[in-house]
Design brief:
Chain lengths: 405, 405
């Protein structure tokens, strides 16, 4: 039957996720770190003799990634980016172009094939909205102008990153693309995002309105999830990653009046599936490929270290060039450093398609880990230095922590 | 990859479930009927060319069955049965023994093998708590003494039915069982239920207490689901169906102070997974095996009709023998008729283990459908006849509808 084995696996995955995230949280680190490292340790341990149901567990992990991007979309406010305006967009574009270019360059220097180098560069583009918002919230500075710029930029670089991913997926499918074909993929991705938001907005509101008037239980939750899955499948049909559709679905629903009742319904689903995704991500990482004892391991370790440096530098420079007055550009630069969910998803796609070798995958994962470990202490230090000159963080900014989570 | 196909299937399953249940609801029928019939029609239609991801979809359906019994357990009140006391227990025992015996007899008369006849009898034992509570609620009579007896009896016959299932599963595994072995299986099942409730109660409260004090998000939901999955897997290890463990987990958590915060977290999960289970149940039914055009079809149709008659008669006689004064025994008997979730799960297990042929499975499903279709109008008629002599249903009983769902 296999169902009991699947249940045992799910219990173990949930236990690893919760213990890991709780430990990370108590150490002042983002919970996702704990889930990844827990998954790595678990993967090195008992995951080897517990794999009969891999297909289902992987499908559940994929649903986790889809629900994650759906939630990010639901919590994103397209309007907010437009309000902080050109500064956020500048930081986003600079923070995508620099890490992408530098990452590609480093990977090419290490002799990687072009496609793999492009995947590595793409995995470094997207700042983690969740981790950034969390760090700002913990420090009680969500209402600072820098915070709003960074959050706006983090949403924008998700969108740009997803478009880059679409182009690279197209490249991976066809082997090589002409400039015209690249423009075509960008066009399809852009058309999908804009089209699904415009058309989705027209369809979603009446559909959800009808769902809420239905008498049978659970229709609103089912309608929202079905909408997310449908756009994910449509994105796949359009040659994009399913997560692009999930993100678009979240953005669309965020702009309807139904966002408030939907969020608490999606939360338990996300709480259950997203940790499965991160633990499986960690479990898929073979840390021994980064061992300094072998020549291959040393090379992978060197690549990881070089990538970590350019990942940090790229985002910090992007932040330092931020236009506008009365802004501490170092705060913006440091806050843009953490990579997370979206970068991991890119790396996972590259591994699935056989473009990233296990050691490359491990190197990218190491970069994500380093970028998230480095940010909280650095940001705390910079903000404390500022607040010695500034007024202390007022009480009411603390209240914003909750609303940003 | 297969993920887009899985997403499309899930969207279609959810759409079928919601349209079916809404239609059923508007026609004054239980929503589960709509999901089953929708699944049947879908299974006859596009499910044939949409099956690459069957493994995962079936695993999701199994998780649906587990969450369903978990929810039934969560909503069951062991204390309530003890309060209505011996009358409910009598109705439960009579309502299990008669349909089981009559169903077994009819199946044996139709020349079925012993094991298949036992499975058919067992599938007729459990009254659907959900459907019964719903019908009473819709009629505004949840506070009547008959209603409390019936709900108590429905919970008790779930437990008895699950023990019968454990015995039959043991039989199916070993081919034949001596009386001592049957006693052993009953002992294990009973020991598991009592033991998991006693030990679970000691472990669950501190575990959930710790989960609620954790700082990372979603720990309470994950802990509750992990507890449910762990007991389900344990039940499977003890030779029982996983759903027995899920039911025990629900009963245990229902008796802790954490039930109130857990219920809204389990609901969205249940809303998403349970319809998958019922639609897949319906889709697995090949209605053509009940065609009167073939000799086999006529035999299956005859068996289904005979089983439907004894399924109704068995429960009504059980109700008519209910002890106590001032009770309308016809109301008790009629209200015990609807079979649902648990009967379908039994039939599904029998089909999976190859004990029930497709036509037998279809016959059992037809009995479940008939029993649920018959009850609402019959109960309404009897209660209206009573209320012409009685006082009209008061306003405050309407309020109980919500709490019983």
């Amino acid at each position: 039957m296999g169902i009991p084995e699947l249940l045992v696996q799910l219990v173990l995955v949930l236990a690893v996720a919760k213990l890991g995230s709780e430990l990370a949280e108590r150490l002042g680190q983002p919970p996702v770190l704990g889930e990844l490292i827990g998954g790595m340790l678990a993967g090195a341990g008992w995951f080897h003799w517990l794999r009969p149901h891999d297909v289902t567990l992987h499908a559940l992990a994929e649903i986790g990634a889809i629900l994650l991007l759906f939630e990010v979309g639901l919590e994103s406010d397209l309007g907010a980016l437009l309000r902080v305006g050109p500064a956020a967009l500048w930081v986003a574009v600079a923070g995508v172009v620099l890490p992408f270019g530098l990452g590609y360059g480093v990977a090419a220097l290490f002799g990687l094939p072009k496609l793999a180098a492009l995947f590595v560069g793409a995995a470094l583009t997207a700042t983690s909205v969740g981790i950034t918002a969390r760090v700002f919230g913990d420090l009680g500075v969500l209402s600072r102008r820098e915070s709003r710029i960074v959050l706006g930029a983090a949403v924008a670089d998700d969108v740009i990153g997803l478009i880059i991913l679409a182009v690279i997926s197209g490249l991976a499918g066809k082997g090589s693309l002409s400039l015209g074909e690249i423009a075509g993929v960008i066009g399809v991705a852009f058309a999908f995002l804009v089209g699904s938001i415009l058309i989705g907005q027209r369809c979603a509101a009446p559909m959800l309105h009808a769902a809420r008037r239905m008498r049978s239980r659970g229709t609103l939750c089912s309608a929202a999830i079905a909408f997310c899955f449908a756009l994910s499948a449509l994105a796949a049909l359009a040659g994009l990653a399913p997560i692009v559709g999930a993100f678009a679905a979240g953005l669309v629903l965020a702009r309807t009046e139904h966002r408030v009742p939907i969020e608490p319904l999606v939360k338990p689903l996300a709480d259950l599936f997203i940790p499965v995704f991160f633990v499986m991500m960690g479990a898929a990482t073979d840390l021994s490929v980064l061992s300094p004892a072998t020549p291959d391991g040393r090379a992978a370790l060197g690549l990881g270290a070089a990538l970590a440096v350019v990942a940090v530098i790229g985002k910090v420079i992007g932040g330092l060039t931020c236009p506008g007055r009365g802004i501490d550009r170092w705060v913006v630069g440091i806050a843009m450093i953490p990579r997370g969910e979206v970068g991991l998803i890119f790396a996972g796609l590259g591994r699935q398609q056989g473009i990233l070798t296990p050691s490359l995958y491990a190197a990218v994962l190491a970069v994500v880990l380093v970028s998230t470990l480095v940010t909280p202490p650095a940001l705390k230090r910079r903000l404390q230095a500022l607040s010695d000159a500034d007024e202390p963080a007022s009480e009411d900014t603390r209240g914003l922590v909750e609303s940003a989570r």
